[in-house]
Amino acid sequence: MSLLRRALVAAVAAATTAVLVWPMGQAAAAEVPVGPDGDAFYLAPNPLPPGAAGDPIHYREVSTPIGGLSGAKSYLVLYRSTNATGRQVAVSGTVFVPNRPVGGVRPIVSLAPGTQGLGDNCAPSRAFRSGVEYEQMMVSELLAKGWAVAVTDYEGLGTPGDHTYVVGRSEGPAVLDAVRAATRIPALGLAAGGEVGIAGYSQGGGAAAWAAQLADDYAPELNVVGVAAGGVPADLIEVSKQLDGGLGFGLMLAAAVGMNAAYPELDLPGYLNEAGKREYDARHDKCVAQMMLYAGKKITDYTTSNPLDTPQWRARLNENKAGADAPEMPIFLYHATGDQLVPFPQAKALRQAYCGAGARVQWREYFGEHLTVFLAGRSDAVRFLEDRFAGKPAPSNC
Which of 118, 164, 212, 251 shows its CA 20 to 30 Å from the CA of 17? Predict the structure, then answer.
């Protein structure tokens, strides 16, 4: 973001401490409806009502264990976002708002969740209400700082349709639009123009990196001051090489479904053998635990020919390769040196790409594997965002 644009955003923040700013085309504040209870909440009108990306469709205050423990209100939100081909879609999510007051405009962190699964029952917004969502550890740390937290479900996770798993051009907008939606619902008390942070690990790290790359063009009014992205699957082709026959092959199956959901012309079913067709038909209710039951399986076990060998699939995978555009805001990238799911070398390549393009990158390598570094890096990610909100100079070890 240019210095001029940052100055304008800061001016908006100062002017909107007590007054919400609404974009052109957004419905009047009082007209954001309360959505229905239960599964009906996730069903958007068809066609979508008029509006822009980030506009809320409806919302509902809900009870969550993490909200109660953290002294925060919890809200389900259904909002407009943009999919990988530029079409407007409905995406669900959760917004947590601490009860304790803050001076000025409350910062918001958009938390991009890690792998949940493919079934609607796996959506973070559902898991938060039952108290079994692993991202609530991160949410609790962020709420303890007094920050609001917006957690997207991503496209097709909770809402109808297949989840566009690890498709950055779908996930990045969903992460950014969650913040927009949070500030456009007056009942939440979150003003537009405040400082925004983004964080995520694994699938969430990829989504956070894509949000960082897209923010300046896609959501220029957001004052994103820092991004923490760990375990980033930046290059899906390189990731697939490690997953094929490896511990995380189920994640590769999910990624194939996600790519096909984003780009139906890829015609994943056309490559599947009988075993693959059975798995494809059963995809709708698999959460992350079930996805890990495919360890050691290979692409050849489920296909008549490998879609990754085709120009069509490789082109779409490369379209979702992070690193082509440098984030304008400081970014903290971190990765496990022994990551058995998301290869370490492709993460280092992302760092080099960002550094080469002039980004302010703080890079850290952790000795360990994927899950241990999810735990080890969390506090460093929170500290990085805390320093950005405090206005401290951004470190870079490019």
Answer: 212
Closest CA to 280 of 290, 268, 291: 268
Cβ-contact 184, 55 below 8 angstroms: yes
Supply the pLDDT for residue 169: 98
pLDDT tens track for 257-307:
999 999 999 999 999 999 999 999 988 888 999 999 999 999 999 999 999
Q: Quick check: helix, strand or coil at residue 61? A: strand
- One DSSP character per residue, 342-394 reads S-HHHHHHHHHHHHHTT--EEEEEESS-HHHHHHHTHHHHHHHHHHHHTTPPP
Separation between Cα atoms, residue 199 and residue 138, nearest integer Å: 9
pTM given for the model = 0.93
Two structure tokens written together for 391 = 């206005």
Q: What is the pLDDT of residues 58-86, one digit of tens each?
A: 999 999 999 999 999 999 999 999 999 99
Residues 222-245 as b/e (b if ≥16 CB within 10 A, e otherwise) read bbbbbbbbbbbbbbbebbbebbbe
φ/ψ of residue 29, rounded to 5: -55, -45
- The identity of residue 172, as a single letter, is G
Q: Which amino acid is at 96?
A: F
Any residues with CB less than 8 A from the CB of 326 and at least 6 apart, and which?
A: 213, 353, 354, 357, 358, 359
- H or E stretch covering 241: helix 236-243
Find, among 174, 175, 173, 169, the residue nearest to 263 by Cα: 169
Both structure tokens of 302: 């489920």
- Closest C-alpha among 110, 108, 68 to residue 229: 110
Contact 381, 330 (CB under 8 A): no
Q: What type of residue is 313?
A: W
What SS3 state is found at 67? helix
DSSP secondary structure string for all residues of 160-205 = SS---TT-HHHHHHHHHHHHHHHHT-GGG---TTSEEEEEEETHHH
Q: Which one, of 193, 161, 182, lies nearest residue 93 by Cα?
A: 182
Residue type, 21: V
Q: Judge whether 117 and 254 are in contact, CB under 8 Å.
A: yes
Return the closest-CA partner of residue 148 out of 100, 203, 88.
100
Amino acid (one-letter) located at 285: D
Residue 268: closest CA among 118, 168, 123: 118
